[in-house]
Amino acid sequence: MASQTLNSSMQPTDVYGGDEVSAIILDPGYSSVRAGFAGEDTPKSFVNSHYGVNESGTVFGDDAIHNPLAALDIRNPMSKEGIVEDWDTATRLWEYSITSRLTSFKQADPRTNGLNDDLKDMDVEMDGIEEGEKPLEEHPLLMTETAWNSPKNREKSIEIAMESWGCPAFWLARNSVMAAFGAGKATALVVDVGASTASVLAIHDGLILKKSVQKSHLAGNWLSSQLRTLFETSEPKVELVPHYMIMSKSPVDAGAPAQATYRKYEKSPTDSFRALEEERVLTEFKESVVQVWPGPGRLNSNNQMGMTNLEYAKGQPGRVFEMPDGYNQMWGVERFSVSEGMFDEKAALPIPGEQPITKAQTIPEMVKASVNAVDMDLRSQLLQNIVVTGGTTLINGFTDRLNNELVAMYPSARIKIQAAGLTAERRFGSWIGGSILGSLGTFHQMWISRKEYEEFGANVVEKRCK
Amino acid sequence: MTSHDVRDMLDLPGEAAPRPAKKQKVAAPRPVLKGLAREVQNLGGDNPIAIVPEVSVFKKKRFGSRKPAAKWENRSFKNSARDDETLVLKHWRRKDESSAAPSGEGEAVAQDGGVVEDSTFAKYNVKVITPQYDDEQYQRHLQDNNWSKDETDYLVSLARDYDLRWPIIWDRYEYQPAINLDPETAEVAIVAKAENRTLENLKARYYTVAATMMKVHKPPESMNQAEFNLLELMQNFNPNQEKSRKQFAEAAFSRTKEEAREEESLLIELKRILARSDKLAEERRELYARLEAPPSTGNIGVFTSSQGLQQLLHQLMQADKSKKRRSIMGPDGTSPAGPSGLNQQPSFDRRESSVRESTSGPSGGSNNKKGPAQPGPTERRQLAPEEMQLYGVKIPERIPSSGPSFRSEKLQKPITSKSSVQQQKMLSVLTELGIPHRLIMPTIAVGESYEALLGGIATLIDQRKVMEKIQGEINTIKEKKRREEEERAAKMSGFGGDGVGDDRDVKVEEGEREKSAAPSMSDTGGQHKRSASVLSAVSEKSTKRQKK
User: Do the chains contact at B253 and A410, CB–CB below 8 Å?
Assistant: First the structure.
């Protein structure tokens, strides 16, 4: 097939552009790390970004961190902005996500692989590791980063890839660009609402326009805090008890207090562990109950019939959610109001100890600011190619609402929103784009090779990956 | 359906041994399978399920070619499009048949690294060509007060890095002038930095540089078409125009909903008007064609009286009826001239409606068709004064003794009343002015101005005649004077200057006359005639005197 000659008329349509070199795509985020081979449609390895620490060491992955008996302190190597803070742990976490599922390099027994050793023994062990097989010696690595990553962090990532993992080639790509590629666009306005940050930025021909980068914290975690506020303020107060606390429960009527027997632990789990487990319940709640008012108009604005949308939403059927302790309740208009803050700053529930959100942080305003920061000639094209990605955008009605808001904002422009229908494609949008990019034959000329790294130093990543 | 079939469909290996035996079994209960298929078909309801029963063919094909499985190898390759060509990556490729035959040897070659094939994708690497210049060339051709060489270099390098994607170049443009120790240049640099470059600014600079360098490298005369076009394109770049275009685009982009809606409705209206204007133009053209139709050769004197008209109308109506629904205005109905049928029995009602029809006639066929259906023939619509003026309706206090006549006829009068020479002259003036001899649409207003025009033409012709006459006289007098002078000169040579004063008198007198005649030329016809006659009398006198 490779030897087949192609005439010029065939080239644009008939060429299979793929040429797989078993590259590995690593897409780290605040809530999870996605890793897999380029050319596949979903990441093979999906690892929770949170990790647990106790006296005996550090544990990674969902299999280990949800153990209430281990008295784990749950931490996250990423900052609230999706940037790596704790490089040592991040490196180990990523290595875990790659080696546990992807490469032939088997993680050795934790007692001997050097990962969990004290620093004193480190030097001795390091030699052993260097002589031994490095995890990615045969695999080029394509890593994603946020658009606002610092140059220092970027250099650090190529250092890790080259020095500790021994990659033959490396590339650092922006996750929003990858998300656009995943949706099949080279020019797009990417609306990415993940766990810790929501961002809007414009991409032209596969390069981000730096002036258009907008981000705010109105994403999944913020929505969770809205839910906590909702539970706190609702009457009666809804207790958020995670699953691990429940030994048994008996069914109760809607709104009645829970009847459950609770588990007692000798060594009570840490607060951070509880927070992690509570977050799981909240995630379930978000997935099954929370909805975005789809528009037209805001939840608090009037509709054509003269009544507010809020009243209309009250008339909509509610949804029942049963807490782990058996408490259940019908959630009516509340399920709209918790998410309304993402679009209307005035509707956001106040979170104790936090600044009230501003108008500029809402998603439509971010789109507006982002569009205004690019050249006039690009704007209409961008609005026709809006790529919506990230797990939080899966909340029911999100894209409808976004579409309605944008149509109202730009009445003379054509708005077209591209949102993957499949859950996995929406959640792993940037990984999938990386998978596409990494498997392209024309991408081979882009890789930063080991030789180039050795020649120019870590600085090369700034020069090449723009 | 047996597990074997399912395995086959899903391409699963295993249980290969009992296959031949099972195959025979499958062949036997075929009819049963068919029955089952019918049940399955029932499940589909009205839509029949498409079942392809060609399983056996598929199998035969599959088992027929018992080729060994294709061999693949993890082959190394490099990419010549890379800056660093030493990077060797590996991908899985089908093993070549030739190298597969002596198995093992091919691998050895690949591992030697002797021949590493190039990636097939290397050829897709395309780079833009950016202008190249050296210091000297820059000094000579590319100096600009607003741009330092450093910044120009930076711009060109950005253009190369981002393959001339201007929105990105503008987005990433962060020129920080090199901090020089020389205070003078540093100051300049700071000034330059303060400037916030717009996209148009960057483009304009780049295109100037590129165009200039293009000309330096190759004179425009020797460029080929494509190159020259590019050069022209770059030279014609107008940043201000671009800027205003963008401002317009931005204004259009940030329209409010109301504005957008208004514009939309205006556009719809425009579309409607355009659609209608086509139809209107068509109708008008038709109308003109009919108006400019050659006048009928027959005598129209019969129709000048109201009775004659009535008769004509009646005839037309008859013709119309016989042609079945083809309106009077139809292209064929225009030439029924000729007073053939003279049986006239016009009822009053008929007459009323027909009069209305004839007045509103030229406004179009549709109007005409509607006419008889809508208003009853007995009721007569009272026209408002402005409508009267619009349609040119006049109600005379008494009917003139000659009876009603065509307005167009009346218009012809000023011409026809003149002598044939005069007529000719007037017509030629009309032709000169580009006005048809017969008015196309003799409305009252047009008629009045036409009349005025004809009056003016008559005056003009008169004036011209007078002027020619005077000119002639002046010429004769001049000639005479010349002769006299000659004579006097002859006399002077003979005897004294007698008679000189007398001559001078005459001359002065004439000069005065001419002067006094000149302003009267611009007066109205009657006055003018008088002064002309006076003038001619004077001139006669003078000639007489001269003769004396």
Answer: yes
Q: Measured between beta carbons, which residues in chain B are less than 8 angstroms from residue A410?
A: 253
Predicted confidence at residue A223, as pLDDT, reads 94
Burial class (CB in 10 A: 0-12, 13-18, 19+), A431: buried
Q: Dig out the tokens for A404 from the structure.
A: 């309605």
d(CA A77, CA A91): 9
Q: Does B135 touch chain A (CB under 8 A)?
A: no
Q: Which residue of B has its CA nearest to A170?
A: B87
Which tokens belong to B296? 């009928």
Nearest C-alpha neighbor of B202 from the set B269, B132, B151, B136: B151
- What H or E segment, with its residue span, contains residue B251? helix B239-253
Closest CA to A277 of A326, A241, A226, A327: A241
Secondary structure percentages of chain B, helix, strand, coil, to 5 = 65, 5, 30
Q: Do B82 and A449 touch (CB under 8 A)?
A: yes
Torsion, Cα B307 B309 B310 B315, to 10 degrees, reads: 130
Q: Do A452 and B165 count as a contact with CB atoms less than 8 A apart?
A: no
- Give B122 to chain A, closest Cα distance, Å: 7
Domains of chain A, residue spans? 220-260+274-288+321-341
pLDDT of residue A142: 94
Q: Locate tokens 């120009």: which residue?
A: B152
**Contact with chain B for residue A22, Cβ under 8 A:** yes
> Where does residue A387 rank: exposed (0-12), middle (13-18), buried (19+ CB within 10 A)?
buried
DSSP secondary structure, B150-188, as one string: HHHHHHHHHHHHTTT-HHHHHHH--------SSHHHHHH
Pairwise CA distance, residues B48 & B55, whole Å: 19
User: Measured between beta carbons, which residues in chain A are less than 8 angstroms from residue B86?
Assistant: 449, 451
* Per-residue pLDDT, B98: 54
Measure in Å the smallest separation between the Cα of A336 and chain B Cα atoms. 27
E strand or H helix at A352: none
State pLDDT tens for residues A171-221.
Answer: 999 999 999 999 999 999 999 999 999 999 999 999 999 999 999 999 999
Q: With an 8 Å Cβ cutoff, are A205 and B250 in contact?
A: no
Strand partners, B147: B144
Query: Which residue on chain B is closest to A203 by alpha carbon?
Result: B168
Minimal CA separation from B267 to chain A, in Å: 14
- Range with the poorest average pLDDT among A164-173, A398-407, B126-135, B406-415: B406-415
Q: Which of B31-40, B204-213, B529-538 has the lowest mean pLDDT?
A: B529-538
B348 has a chain A CB within 8 A of its CB: no
- Which of A370-374, B70-74, B179-183 shows the lowest per-residue confidence on average (mean pLDDT)? B179-183
Interchain proximity B87–A2, CB inside 8 Å: no
Whether A354 has its CB under 8 Å from any CB of chain B: the answer is no
